Each structure stands twice: as C-alpha cells, then as structure tokens.
Amino acid sequence: LVFSHGENWKVMRRFTLSTLRNYGMGKRTIEDKIIEECNVLTKTIKANAGKPFEVQTVITAAVSNIIVSILLGKRYDYEDPTFLRLLKIISENVHLTGTPNILLYNMFPMLGFLLGARKKVTNNRKEFHDFLQTTFIEYLKNLDENDPRNFIDSFLIRQREENKKMANRYFHNENLKTVSSNLFAAGTETTGSTLRWAILLMMKYPEIQSKVQEEIAKEIGVRQPRIEDRSKMPYTDAVIHEIQRFSDIVPTNLPHATTKDITFKGFFIPKGMQIVPLLSSVLRDESQWEKPYQFYPEHFLDSEGKFVKRDAFMPFSAGRRICAGETLAKMELFLFFTSLLQKFTFQPPPGISKNDLNLMPALGFTTPPMPYKTCAIPCS
Hints:
- By secondary structure, this protein is mostly helical.
- It contains 12 helices and 7 strands.
- Helix content is 52%, strand content 6%.
- Helix 4 packs across helix 8 and helix 8 (173-204) packs across helix 9 (206-219).
C-alpha cells in the first residue's frame, strides 16, 4: 500500500478498501468500537486524578486498538507487553526512517553496513513480521471461510480461493505481512500523533479549549458524542482541521512517481521519475492561509462562524494514492477529541506555564510533538 506500485498496488489497495468497508470503516459498527475505546481511554486518564502524566502511551494504544480490532478482531490492554512492544517497534521505525542515517542509506545503499539505524529498522521489521506470521498460523487453525472474523481472515480466505484457481500472484504471505504492517503503522502513528498535538495545543491555547468545551456542552451535553454531531459543531470541526494543518504530520508525504512524461512549471519530468510532493508546501502556503505558521482555527470558519472547506487542506495527500484510512481517521479524531474535552480540561503540570510549552516537532518520517506531560482535570 505504501511503497508498491503497478498491478500489485492496485490489487492490494482495492482489496484493502473493500475489506475495511466490510469491517465497518465509515459505518456505525466501527463508530461503536471507537466509542468503546474512548470510554476505556477516559477511565484510564481519570485514574491519574489530575496529576501529571505522559500521554503518548495511552493515546497511541487507544488509537491503535481501532485498527487492531479490524486486523486481528481483538483489542489489547494498554499495559499488555506484546502490544507495547509492537507500538515501540512502530514508533522506532517511523522515527528512524526520517533520520539523516536512513536518508543517507536511501541515497547510497552501499553504505548500509556502516549505518546502525538501517540495521535497527530491518530487525524491527523482521520482529513485527514474525509476530504477524505467528498470528496467521494461529488464525488458520480456526479459519471458517463462511465466517471471517477480521482483515487477516479475509485475506487468508482470498488466498485459498486464488490458490485453487492456480493464479495467485498477489495474495501470498509476504503481501499479507506487508499490508498488515502498513495498516497497523499508519492506523497507529498518524492519528495518535495528531491527538497528542491536539492535547498539547489545547494546553497552549486554553481559550480555544474553552470554546470547544462550550460547543460540546451546548450541542452534546453529557451524552456520548456521535459522529453525526460534527455537522452541528463548526468550531470544534474547525479546531480539529487546524490541528491537522498545523501539526503537518507527514510533511514530505510518501514518494510518488510520474505515470507519463510531463512538463511542470517549465521543468520536464520523464515517466517513472520519483517525486516527493511536499504536503507542507500546501498546508503552510502563504497564499492560501491567513496565518500559515500560527495555530488559527478561523482558517476554517467564515464571517458567520460556519465551517468552510479549504482546497489547500490535504493532510491525507491527494489523487489515486490518497490515504486509504482517511474516513476512519476523521471519525477517530472527532470522537476521541470531543470525548476527551467533554470530560477533561488539559493543563500544563504545576510550575510550567503555557508559554513554556514546546511546539517544535520531533524528528522522524512523521512529526509528532516532543514528549510532554499534562494534567487532565475532570470537568464538573
């Protein structure tokens, strides 16, 4: 899904999108799973009793459990050692693939033996694939072709069908491991990092946090937020969009390639040339945004306070290779964000002012915030 191309990419993407829809992406079934996870997350945060805690583990685990429920048909406790190890592997590899060592290796592969980061990425990938391989074997023992339980079951069933036709070019275990790891990583890292930015920005701008909470109180009250509430909450919707724009989670996008010869702005680019379409150049375009380098939810509001779509808003990329999980990510962001702000006010730990909060991103292929602690004060 991420780095393949040609017919292999087409087949895997088509299968992935249809299977994700079958397991509820964009539907009420997955919304209910997200809401269940929201409840677990808020209870876990409430247990800190307003004391400072580090948000990365619980936020990342909560978000990851949504894609895990689709891939594996289960959820993990936030302290499960296997789950924590998988999350650590993902975090390490996403970080390392954006470091100078890996960028140097990508340009000069013959130097790989000198670069420890490349070996770490490779070992992590193998460990993750070994976990998936063991999972496949276990699932095959109880595979019911008439009752698939999850994404992996659906792939294994399709694999059997293709094997019977003696024409299985794509539904083999290597593709299953790669697609599963792509979904696991993408469904964990990007949304998890965006929500961590959300909490940090709410601490940095308490007046914006208060306005979101006022809208939640007015439109939702104390009941559980649902996805249909979004259309009645323009300010909250604008804040979520601005969090995505400002955080710029995947600034360099994923590598693409031209499908034909093209001349772009006077430059000739031949067919098959790798290109890097910088999402930052759009999300921070001074001709498109009034305050491109500031956190400013009004970017998505008109003079009457109604939500406004912006053509320059493309954190999920664009075109045929747009993020396969865009619908799921949007649902997660709204439900997690509103559930958290309905129940808590996020403040810096004692002794730290909002002016002390660091908005510089961490280094990596994605740009999560630097580690921080917060105090989640229960709303009365």
